[in-house]
Amino acid sequence: MVDLSVKLAKVHLPNPLINASGIYGSDIPDIIKTAEAKTGAVLYKTTTIEERNGNKVPRYWQDELFALNSIGLPNKGYKYLIQITPEVKQKTTKPMITSLLGFSFEEYITLCKAYNDSAVDIIEVNFSCPNIEGKPQAAYNFEYLPKLMKACREAAPDKPLFAKLPAYLDPSQRKMVAKMLIDSKFQGVTLINSLGESLLVNAKTEKTYIRPNNGLAGLTGKAIKPVALGNVWGFYNLLKDSGIQIMGVGGIECGLDVFEFILCGADAVQIGTAYIRQGTAVFEKMENELIQIMNEKGYTSLNDFRGKLKIWGD
Ligand SMILES: Cc1cc2nc3c(=O)[nH]c(=O)nc-3n(C[C@H](O)[C@H](O)[C@H](O)COP(=O)(O)O)c2cc1C
């Protein structure tokens, strides 16, 4: 009998499959729909202080390999999600993870404080939205980020904190950020957000697919899996003795992908573009495929293979 359960901080999840932030986690019907699917927890769309409409359309495009988005964080504001969480919790026993992003240091603190006193189980702090014009990602500002992480920690002492980070493409950056996570006592890290500043060109019309930000947007979907896996494996090797957990996200489409992320050190995984493309059935399909792979390999729990990727030649 295979056991897929996992603990994120002290929060129990029946399986490691979670919707990625931004995908069906904005209001009660979407949250319940995601909770009723074969998910282990539900992750809310990133919330900001004020309600936002997001960017102009077209702001999303997808094909088999890629998806490109510049949604611009449309959301009803954090107070709405704090208000509905007790009602959501009467309808489902699944843990609720919120996501927040501040447009200033003070806004991050206000949001962390408010969610600390709310009914959510875990807070994912989004340091890495690539789609707000004129607002650089906090996660690439290596002087600002450690101060911000520590302040978030102080503002939310009672909830597990996960940092949602972008891809880092240089090991020196990864080392700096791993130290910041340890120093600021975050419980976890979510890797990776959309690959910002990406461009897809429609050669037929000679136009961009996306309207905001001069056509530049965040890349997601199957094509970004190797970058996500590299970040998960890279951070796992720096964090494995610290107790800091990892949620892997980026291009996960099937049970085999889930297996690979856990093998590279992920404690749980998030599914974004594949949830948009395949609907709620994607979670049951992934769960069944993962169970089949584990049965074939003789594994009975995720701990049997988590982080146990072998290097060719060893
Ligand atoms: C339409 C869309 C909206 C998104 N909105 C958010 C968001 O609000 N907050 C966030 O942290 N990430 C957001 N993301 C990024 C996803 O959470 C995830 O990191 C990324 O899509 C990579 O996973 P995937 O390849 O499975 O889609 C969004 C992605 C998409 C496609």
What does this structure look like?
The strands form four sheets. The protein has an eight-stranded parallel β-sheet with strand order 3-16-15-10-9-8-7-4. The chain has a single domain, classed as Aldolase class I (TIM Barrel, Alpha-Beta Barrel). By secondary structure, the protein is α/β, with parallel strands linked by helices. Strand 9 (161-165), helix 5 (171-183) and strand 10 (188-191) form a beta-alpha-beta unit. The chain contains nine helices and 16 strands. 49% of the residues are buried. Helix content is 34%, strand content 18%. The longest helix has 17 residues, at 281-297. Bound molecules: flavin mononucleotide. Flavin mononucleotide (FMN) is lined by residues 20-22, 45-46, 60, 67, 69, 71, 73, 99, 126, 164, 193-194, 220-221, 224, 249-252, 271-274.
Task: Give a concise summary.
With 314 residues, the chain is of the alpha/beta class.
Q: Class in CATH?
A: Alpha Beta
Q: Name the shape in a single word.
A: globular
Number of helices: 9
Strand order of the largest sheet: 3-16-15-10-9-8-7-4
Mean pLDDT across all amino acids? 97
Rg? 18 Å
Q: What is the multimeric organization of the chains shown?
A: single chain
Tell me how many strands there are. Answer: 16
Which cofactor or ligand species appear? flavin mononucleotide
Give the terminus-to-terminus CA distance. Answer: 31 Å
Relative helix content: 25-40%
Task: Determine the CATH topology.
Answer: TIM Barrel
The major sheet is characterized as: 8 strands, parallel
Strand proportion:
15-25%
Low-confidence stretches: none
Identify the CATH homologous superfamily. Aldolase class I
CATH second-level architecture: Alpha-Beta Barrel
Helix and strand string, N-terminal first?
Answer: EEEHEEEHEHEHEHEEEEEHEHEHH
Structural class: alpha/beta
